[in-house]
## 1
Amino acid sequence: MTADPDVRLRADARRNRDQILAAAKAMFAEEGPDVPMEEIARRAGVGVGTLYRRFPDRDALIKAVAQDNFAQVLAEAEAAEGEEPTAWEALVRLLSRSRALRLSVHLALLSPQAWATIREDPQTQHFRDEIMDVLDRIVAGAQREGQLRSDVGAGDVAVLVSLLLKRVPAPKDTADVVTDRVLALMLDGLRARPGSPLPGRVLTAADLRDR
Amino acid sequence: MTADPDVRLRADARRNRDQILAAAKAMFAEEGPDVPMEEIARRAGVGVGTLYRRFPDRDALIKAVAQDNFAQVLAEAEAAEGEEPTAWEALVRLLSRSRALRLSVHLALLSPQAWATIREDPQTQHFRDEIMDVLDRIVAGAQREGQLRSDVGAGDVAVLVSLLLKRVPAPKDTADVVTDRVLALMLDGLRARPGSPLPGRVLTAADLRDR
Amino acid sequence: MTADPDVRLRADARRNRDQILAAAKAMFAEEGPDVPMEEIARRAGVGVGTLYRRFPDRDALIKAVAQDNFAQVLAEAEAAEGEEPTAWEALVRLLSRSRALRLSVHLALLSPQAWATIREDPQTQHFRDEIMDVLDRIVAGAQREGQLRSDVGAGDVAVLVSLLLKRVPAPKDTADVVTDRVLALMLDGLRARPGSPLPGRVLTAADLRDR
Amino acid sequence: MTADPDVRLRADARRNRDQILAAAKAMFAEEGPDVPMEEIARRAGVGVGTLYRRFPDRDALIKAVAQDNFAQVLAEAEAAEGEEPTAWEALVRLLSRSRALRLSVHLALLSPQAWATIREDPQTQHFRDEIMDVLDRIVAGAQREGQLRSDVGAGDVAVLVSLLLKRVPAPKDTADVVTDRVLALMLDGLRARPGSPLPGRVLTAADLRDR
DNA sequence: AATGAATGAGGCTTCATTCAT
DNA sequence: GATGAATGAAGCCTCATTCAT
C-alpha cells in the first residue's frame, strides 16, 4: 500500500523509511507542515542525516506523505466498490470511511505551499485520477440503481468527501457525532427524490482537475 | 464593525492600523499564517516597526484578524435575521454568504498553532458566542415555520457553515459553481421532509464549545 | 552644581532637563547603561522627542550624567578640604563620602563603551582634573601633618576611592557595614607608621591620566 | 578544571566548545556582556549555529563563563593553601593572584542583568561556596599564626579580593603598579598590629550570601 | 549506511533616531 | 516646544541542509 516501492531497499532501510513516513504523518497532523525536520527525525528514532538520505528535502517528504494518503483512499474506494452489494452502499461506505481517512489526509493540506507542492506531484496526480475513476463508476452505478439523484457527478461527491476531511471545530469527544450527522445530512441531500434541482451542471472529475 | 476601536488613535495611526489589518488578512489568505511579518508590513506600506508598534507580535495580529473576521460574520448573521422575511430564508442567506466570508475567515485557520491562538482569545470567543445566539434564533424560527427539519440544532448548522468556509480543491473558475451545488445539496438535506433521522442528538452551540 | 549651564533655558525646559538627567541616573544605576531611551523618557515623564531635543543621542546623555556625577565629587572634595580642621580628616571624610557617591558615580561605568565615551569627554576630563588638584592638596597636607604615610600620592588615593565606588557583592543590608570595614582597613593601611614600603613609585594624578 | 565536562562530546565538538568559551571570555572582557553573539562566534572560528547548539542562549554562555572563572579562582585558592608554607603567605598569594584573575572574572560582572543571571546559577553558587570554605581556612590559619589581624573574617577578605578584581581607571602600563600598591596597602591594613579596631562585626562567608 | 555536528540564511523583534502632527 | 508615531538597521535565534566522523 506504500506509494513508492523505490527499487528494493534493504530490510532495515525500508523500516527506517516507514518509520520516518509514519512520524511525518503524525507530526504534520499535530503541528502542521512546518515541524522541524529534526523533530520528525527524532520521533522516527533516526538522525536527521538518515531522514535526508531517504527524502532529499521537506517537499519530498510532503509528497511521500500525500502519496501514501491518496493510495489509502484509493484502496478504500476499490474495497468499497468490490465488497458492497450495491453502488449506493459503496458510496455510503466511502463517505463514512472518509472520516477515518481524515486524520491521514488533511495533514498535508494545511499550508498553501504544501498544497502547491502536492498538486504538482505527478505521482499524487495519478492516484487522484485513479480514485476519480472508481468514484465515477460508483456514482454511475448508484444512479442506475435509482438511489442517487441524477444531477450529481463524481466531482460533486469528491467535493463532499474533501469537506468531510476537514477538521471540524468541535471538542475531541463530539467530533465523531458531528461528522456522523453531517454525513447523514449529506446523504439525505444526495438521495434521489423530488427536490430542487442543483444549480450549474453536473461536476465531473475533470472539473476538479487543477489548472 | 472592527473588533477593536482601541481608544482614540491619531488619524494616521488609525489608517495605518487598518491597512496593516487588511494586508494581514490578504496575506494570511494567500500564503498562510506564516508569512514573514516584513511582507505584511511591506504590503501595508509601512515599516516593520510600525506593524510591531500596533501588534506586539504575530499572535496579536492573528487575533486581531480573527476578531475582525468573526465580527463580520456576526454582522452578516444579524443582517440576515433582520432583513429576510422568514427564518428559513435567513438561514439560506446565511449559508450562501458563508461563501463570501470564506476568503476572510479561513485565513487564520491554517496552522494548528494559529488556531490555538484564536481559540484562546476571549474577544473572539465573545463574537463566536454572539454569532451562535443569532443562529439559535434563526434555527428555532425556521423550525417553527416548518421549513427546517426538527432534528438539527444551531450546532449542526454552524458545522455546515464551517465546512463551507473550507477552500474547495477546485480550479478558481469552478470554485463558485462547486460551492453553489454543495450548498444546494446541504439545503436539500436540511429541509423538513420525511427522511432518515440524523444519528446522535441535536447539536447545540454548547456542543461546539471547546474544552 | 549642575555640570552644564547650557545658556539660559526657560524654567520648564530646565525642569525637563533635570528630570531627564535624574531619570537617566536612576535607570543607568538599576538597569545598566543600555536602558532604552524610551524608558528613560517615560520615567522622566516626557516624550522621547523631548529627551532627544535636550540630548542629541545616548552618548550625550551619558556624558551629562558623568559630568553631573563628577561635579558632585568635586564639590564633596572641596567641602572636605574647606571644612575639616586637618587634611587627614579631610581625607578620611572624602573616603567615607565616596560611599555616598558610589550610587551616583558607578552608574555610568558599567559598559566599556560608556566608559570610553566618558573618558573622551573634555568637560568630564576637566572635573577630574580639578578633583585631582584638590586631592593633591589634601594628600600633601596630610603628609605634612605626619598622619599620612609619605610613600603615597594623590594617584594612590584616587585609586582607593575608585575601588570604594565599586558595587560590592553583598546583600543590600550588609553593604554599608562592608564598605565601612573596607574603608577602615584602607585607612589603617594609609596611616603613617613603620611598615613595609609600597612597591613602585608614588602615584600622581598624572599617572592615572588616560592615554 | 572546566566547570562542565558535559558528558562525552566528540573530539571536535569539545574543541569547539572550548574555543567558544575562550572567545566569549575574551570578548566579554573587552566589550562587555552585550557583544553580539555573532562576533563571539566569529572570534571562536565557528558559525552562530554552533555557538547556539552548545549554549542555548546568551545567559547560558554567561553562566558557563562564570563557572569557568570561579572554578579557576577555586583552583588558585586551593593551590595557595596547599603550596604555601604559612597561611599568611597563602593569603598574600591569593590576593596577588586576584590581579591575574581579574581579566577573566570581572568580565561577566558588567551588567546588572548578567550579574543576576550568574547569581541565580546553582553551579556557580557551588563554586562560590567552595571558595569561601578555602578562604575560611586560610583566614583562620593566618590568624592563628598571629600574622592576620583578628577582627577580620573570610567575608572581609572576599570583599577585598572582589575590589581587586575591578578594572582600575589607569592607563594600561600603569595598571600593574597600581594594583601592586593597592595590594600592599591592603596587606598593611590587614596585618595584625595595634590599630583602630574595625567597625561592625567580623564578616563571614554567610554575610555575603545573597538573599 | 547512520549519526549528529556545523553552517548560515532568514525570520522575528527591539530600539535609536527622525519626523509629522 | 512637546509628543509619540514611523522607520529600518541590527541583534537574536531557529532550522533546513550539508558534511565530517
Note: The radius of gyration of chain A is 19 Å.
## 2
Amino acid sequence: MSSALIEPQKTRPGTLKLHPIMLWSKLFIPTLRETPAEAEVASHQLLLRAGYVRQLAAGVYSHLYLGNRSLLKIQQIIREEMDAIGAQEFLLPALNPAEVWQESGRWDVMGPNMFRLKDRWGRDLCLGMTHEEIMTAIARGELRSYKQLPQMWYQIQTKFRDEARPKSGLLRVRQFIMKDSYSFDIDAAGLDVAYQKHYEAYRKIFARCGVDVIPVEADSGAMGGSQSMEFMVPSDAGEDFVVVCPACKYAANLEKAESVAVVPGTADPEGDLSPEEFHTPGLKSIADLCAFTGLPDSSQMKSLVMVAGGKPVLALLRGEHQLSETKFSKAVGATEVRPAHPFEIVDWFGAEPGSLGPVGVKNMPVVADVALEGRKNMISGANKTDYHLRNVTPGEDFQAKFVDIRQSQAGDGCTVCGAALEMKKTIEVGHIFKLGYKYSASMGLRVLDEKGAEITPIMGSYGIGVERILASCIEQHHDKNGILMPATIAPFVVAVTPVNQADPLQRAAAEKIYADCKALGIDAILDDRDERPGVKFKDADLVGIPYRITIGKKLPQGIVEMTVRRGGAPASEVAVDAVVAELKKLVDAEVAAAAWSGN
RNA sequence: CGGGGCGUGGCUCAGCCUGGUAGAGCGCCUGGUUCGGGACCAGGAGGCCGGAGGUUCGAAUCCUCUCGCCCCGACCA
C-alpha cells in the first residue's frame, strides 16, 4: 500500500479537513447485517445498520464517524445559506442560569420538559432548550441604537428537551443539534424582511440536503406571535399532520388548517318545526343515534363540554367532525382548555354525557362550528339522560356564537380553490416564527430611535433540526439495500472499489482513481479491505455512498465500472482514464440539480 | 403518567410453561481453500441469563421488588 495515501494531505491555511485517512480498512464503520430489535422506523434501522449512530440512552445517541460526517455536511450547508443572508454565527452556552429563564417567564412555562440541575451552591441551572433568552440577554446588554439594527444571529449546537416519550430513533430525542437563529429589527417591516430571508434560505437548505419539504402555515400559539411557518417532510414516520391542497398551493398544519366541510349526507327536513323529545335508552354515541334515527352523522349535533380558563363552554359540532382545541381556545380567548369531567357535566347539565345539547342552556356560553350555521331540524341531546331532541335549529332553538372550531379532515374543500384536501403525515424539520415583542419586552431590550425615543426591537426566531434532516432524508430515500444518500450530504460521495485487493494492478489503479478524485475535490473512500467483492458492494449500498467505481476484470482492457446508487441503473463501463472526469460531471450535475429553483 | 411488550456472548434469537452442568445462526480470532453481490472447511475465544431479595438440596426458569429499552396513548416552546 502506498504510504502517500495515508499521509495527511497538505492543508491550505484556513481550510478545514475532516479526516486525512479515507481507507475503509482503517475507518470505524461498524455495519450490521441484522436489524437491531429496538429500531422500528426505517431511518432508525438504517442509521444503526449503516454504523452512523449508536444509542446511549432513551433519546440520546452517539454519532459515529459516518453519522458525524453527514451531520457536518448538513451543518455546512446550513452555515453557507445562513451566512448568505447575512446572519452571524455565535456559540452559546448550553448551561443556563435560571435567572434569564425566570425573566422571560419560561422557567415555569417549560415545566418538566426542561432539564434542570443545581450547582454546588444550590443555584438553579438548566440545559437550554432554545436560546431566545440568551440571545436577548446579549442584545439588551449591547444594542443601544437603531443604527445597530437589524441583526441576525445564529448558532448550531446541542439543545436539550426532556421529552416524555423519545421515539423513532433520531426523530424524537432528548438531546439534539439545532440551528437556531434570531432576528432583531426596528419595526414589523424589518421583521418581515428577516422572515422572508429565512424562508428562502430554508428552501435552499432543504433542497440542497435532498429533502422534499412542504412549507405550511402553522399556529403561532399563545405567544402572541403574528406569523409562523413550519417546514414539513412527508413521511409515515412523522407524527404531525398537515393538510394540503393538491390543486393550489394551500398547505397548513392540521391545528391551523381551514377548510369547507362537505355537504351533509342527507338534506335537513323542511319546515319550521319545534324541538321534540324522544326516548333513547342507553344511546350515547353519535353512531348509536345514527343507527336509531336512520340519519347520517352529519344530521347529528355533537355537544362537547369544555373548560376554558376554568369556566365551562359548550362546543357544538356536526356529528362526524372533530374539535380543534387550538381553534377552540383561540375562539374563546383562553390558553388553558380541557374537556370537562363527567361529574362536572352532571353538575352543570343535570344530565349525563351522551344526552347533552344546546337547547335551554343558560349557564354557559355556546360556541358552534360554522358548519352548523344555516342548518335546521337536526338531532341533539335533550339535557335529560336517555332523551334526545329532533328538529333542533341553530339560531332559533338556541343562540350560539358561530366560529370555525372544527379540525379539518381529508376530503374537505379547499378554502382557496375548492378542491378536495389531502392529509399527510409529516416530520417537522424547520420552523420560522415572528416572535414579536415577547422576549424583547419582558427582558427589557430597548434601543433609541432616530428621534432619541426608546423603542423595543421586534424579534423573530428560526429553527432547524439537524439530525431530523438526516433522518428524514433517509426516510425519504432508501431501498431494500440501504440508504440512498444525495451526494451533498452523504458521508462519502464515491467508493473506489478494487474487486480483488490482492491484484497489484487493480490496487494501483484504485489508488490513482482515489487520488484523482481527491484532487478534484470529490469526497472519496477507498475500499481497500481484503474482503470478497459482495461484502464491499453490500456495505457501500447500505451506508449510502451515491457513486461507486469498481475496478475489476476488465482493467487490463482499460475499463472500469461506474455505478450510480440512486435510480438502480446497471453499472456502466468507462475508460479508466476518463472515469474521474465522468464522475465529476455526474456529481456536479447532481449538486446543481439540488439547488432550489424558486417556487 | 396510563396500557402493552421485551431484557440470555457484539447482533438476531432459542431455552423459561414442566427448576437439575447455558445453546444456535451471524459476527470475532487462527490456519487453509476461495474471490464480481454479505464464501467454505477445521480449530478457537467470548455469557455473575439487566439488578436485588425470596422459595428450594438446587433458579436463566418459580415469587416479590427494582432498573433499563421499545411500542400505543397522554404530552410536545
Note: Confidence is low (pLDDT under 50) at residues 1-19 of chain A.
